[in-house]
């Protein structure tokens, strides 16, 4: 009787199927690895000078790390206002070379001042091809520091080698702990402050506050500790923020003067290209944003962009920028000018620059 020693055809089929499965699985693993490699998802470390980094496990354990966080901007700017959300790394690289770009900690920060013209400066700088700026205010050093540098970096837009990564959070200038924290991230970071006549700035600040909380007392009431003897309440936030010398002094304890560039808020309105030219020099960039990018919009009463980033249409800043200010008693304005005079003089001396506020 004939015997059959060769293997059962069903077993052979199973073996073939298994081999195919193993090959498909291996190919899958290789593809996924390549994808992660090229998209930069596996970047593991921070820059060398990131001394106050939290361990990645801390950041990702669900307490500190959230895929979507709520940010509260001073701005009220479309897409970045109070209660809006900011998704880590949502912005794409408009250079079309996204696969080469990585997320880095910022090399430059616009640290203030609130209502100085920080949004205008950021939007104008974004026209520069060598600048990659975060649109929203991350408030990392003042509010979200516990999330760690890993989280902060994940917020930044991807950038190519040679591009300058930056963000703006105007509150940094006045928060006591911020200079030291910024210094521990990087001692070389470039700092930009847009300063504006502190009296106009205070009124602008109050105009914003009252737009959100309409039933607060009048500016003229809040500005004084005692209206009868004319004693100014210098601790009232809209006035306290304008004590520029006091705030700058804290930054100068950590950073050399040459590392801090002061932009005139008034100049940014009257001559945006001139101020932008100086900022580009300070950042070590070619002067690419020039007067050909701006036009003066008579209806808005401010310079606007002929062609903003990612668009071919002219564009002015939103309606929360360039608001009509609340009318203030001229005598109160006069008193505030007297109050700020010595502070401004001290600030001009520290800055080595006279901003010409009355
Ligand atoms: N080009 C252009 N368009 C509109 N507004 C301009 C512009 N340049 C500077 N400014 C001034 O910017 C002021 C708002 O400042 P910030 O952007 O720093 O405000 S915020 O702190 O981010 O809320 C804003 O203050 P207000 O005029 O009080 O609204 C403007 O005076």
TrEMBL record:
<keyword id="KW-0808">Transferase</keyword>
<dbReference type="InterPro" id="IPR037359">
    <property type="entry name" value="NST/OST"/>
</dbReference>
<keyword id="KW-0812">Transmembrane</keyword>
<dbReference type="InterPro" id="IPR000863">
    <property type="entry name" value="Sulfotransferase_dom"/>
</dbReference>
<feature type="binding site">
    <location>
        <position position="204"/>
    </location>
    <ligand>
        <name>3'-phosphoadenylyl sulfate</name>
    </ligand>
</feature>
<dbReference type="InterPro" id="IPR027417">
    <property type="entry name" value="P-loop_NTPase"/>
</dbReference>
<comment type="similarity">
    <text>Belongs to the sulfotransferase 1 family.</text>
</comment>
<keyword id="KW-0472">Membrane</keyword>
<feature type="domain" description="Sulfotransferase">
    <location>
        <begin position="106"/>
        <end position="343"/>
    </location>
</feature>
<feature type="disulfide bond">
    <location>
        <begin position="304"/>
        <end position="316"/>
    </location>
</feature>
<keyword id="KW-0325">Glycoprotein</keyword>
<dbReference type="GO" id="GO:0008467">
    <property type="term" value="F:[heparan sulfate]-glucosamine 3-sulfotransferase activity"/>
</dbReference>
<keyword id="KW-1133">Transmembrane helix</keyword>
<keyword id="KW-1015">Disulfide bond</keyword>
<keyword id="KW-0333">Golgi apparatus</keyword>
<protein>
    <recommendedName>
        <fullName>Sulfotransferase</fullName>
        <ecNumber>2.8.2.-</ecNumber>
    </recommendedName>
</protein>
<dbReference type="GO" id="GO:0000139">
    <property type="term" value="C:Golgi membrane"/>
</dbReference>
<feature type="region of interest" description="Disordered">
    <location>
        <begin position="73"/>
        <end position="97"/>
    </location>
</feature>
<feature type="binding site">
    <location>
        <position position="196"/>
    </location>
    <ligand>
        <name>3'-phosphoadenylyl sulfate</name>
    </ligand>
</feature>
<keyword id="KW-0735">Signal-anchor</keyword>
<dbReference type="Pfam" id="PF00685">
    <property type="entry name" value="Sulfotransfer_1"/>
</dbReference>
<feature type="active site" description="For sulfotransferase activity">
    <location>
        <position position="115"/>
    </location>
</feature>
<feature type="binding site">
    <location>
        <begin position="115"/>
        <end position="119"/>
    </location>
    <ligand>
        <name>3'-phosphoadenylyl sulfate</name>
    </ligand>
</feature>
<feature type="transmembrane region" description="Helical">
    <location>
        <begin position="21"/>
        <end position="39"/>
    </location>
</feature>
<feature type="binding site">
    <location>
        <begin position="321"/>
        <end position="325"/>
    </location>
    <ligand>
        <name>3'-phosphoadenylyl sulfate</name>
    </ligand>
</feature>
């Amino acid at each position: 009787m004939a015997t059959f020693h060769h293997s059962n055809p069903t077993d052979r089929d199973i073996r073939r199927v298994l081999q195919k499965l193993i090959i498909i699985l291996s190919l899958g693993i290789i593809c996924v690895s390549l994808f992660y490699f090229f998209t930069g998802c596996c970047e593991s470390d921070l820059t060398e000078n990131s001394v106050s980094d939290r361990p990645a496990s801390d950041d990702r354990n669900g307490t500190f790390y959230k895929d979507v966080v709520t940010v509260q901007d001073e701005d009220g700017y479309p897409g970045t206002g109070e209660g809006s959300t900011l998704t880590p790394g949502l912005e794409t690289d408009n250079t079309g070379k996204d696969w080469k770009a990585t997320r880095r900690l910022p090399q430059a920060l616009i640290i203030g001042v609130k209502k100085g013209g920080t949004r205008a400066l950021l939007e104008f700088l974004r026209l520069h091809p060598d600048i990659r700026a975060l649109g929203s205010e991350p408030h990392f050093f003042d509010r979200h520091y516990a999330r760690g540098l890993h989280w902060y970096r994940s917020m930044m837009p991807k950038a190519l080698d040679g591009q300058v990564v930056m963000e703006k959070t105007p509150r940094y200038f006045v928060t006591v702990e911020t200079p030291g924290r910024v210094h521990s991230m990087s001692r070389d970071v470039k700092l930009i402050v847009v300063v504006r006549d502190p009296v106009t700035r205070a009124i602008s600040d109050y105009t914003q506050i009252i737009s959100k909380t309409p039933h607060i007392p009048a500016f003229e009431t809040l500005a004084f500790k005692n209206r009868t003897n004319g004693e100014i309440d210098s601790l009232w936030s809209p006035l306290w923020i304008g004590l520029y010398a006091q705030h700058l002094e804290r930054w100068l304890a950590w950073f050399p003067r040459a590392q801090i560039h002061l932009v005139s808020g008034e100049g940014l309105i009257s001559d945006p290209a001139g101020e932008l030219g100086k900022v580009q020099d300070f950042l070590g960039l070619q002067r690419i944003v020039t007067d050909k990018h701006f036009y003066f919009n008579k209806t808005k009463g401010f310079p606007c962009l002929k062609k903003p980033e990612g668009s071919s249409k002219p564009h002015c800043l939103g309606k929360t920028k360039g608001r009509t200010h609340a009318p203030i008693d001229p005598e109160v304005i006069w008193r505030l000018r007297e109050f700020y005079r010595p502070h401004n003089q001290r600030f001009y001396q520290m800055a080595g620059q006279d901003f010409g506020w009355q």
